[in-house]
Amino acid sequence: LIFAGAPDWLSKTATEYLMVTSGFDYWSATEDDHRQVCPTSGKIKNLYVKLLWGDPGNDPDAYRFTLRVNGASPANGLVVTIVANDTTGDDTAHEVTVAAGDVLTLMCEPLESPGSTVWAFMGMTFVADTDGESLILAGTTNDLHNTDTEYNLLSTFWISSWQADESLVYQMGQECTLKKLYVLLSAAPGDGKSYTFTLRKGDGLGDGNLAVTITGAATTTGNDLV
Question: Which residue range(s) make up the domain with 180?
Fold first, then answer.
């Protein structure tokens, strides 16, 4: 399952974006700020949307929600339009095929200048091509430090801050195998510079086996598939 939502009002006039997995996100007009990388291949389907604090307004006011892949809306993709007097909608007729490394976002478009501002919450189903796999999606707009080693949640959110104290970002895990780490930067580290991202086991257990190093003036992506 994929869960999304934001304690934030939808815009009546501007197209805005949200992380596909968002525990504490805010809608904004900059899609790149909400990108999350899909680490494995599969299909995303069953988009459900629920509005809180009202409906879009008076007919023909509406809000349209779309799952985006690599900055585009897939043909015959997942789209839900909620019109005046309704507060829920779903698309169970379509599905979106995703590949490892695809970048995901959610888009909301106000149609016909809605008269009401509302919050929105969403859910989808991910079906992996490899049986038993599931997703952990993350991302933050908090800047990486130029010199200090810092830590963050495994399932970060839009404004999730990097911390010098690792214990502030512990998250409890289940018995499982974590693999296929993908990283996307908003800009390259620079000539002769690099960032290394390492999956850690907290409480003094040290580094795990997943690590991605992104180096140079032209590279913004990396992965560890071992």
Answer: 176-224
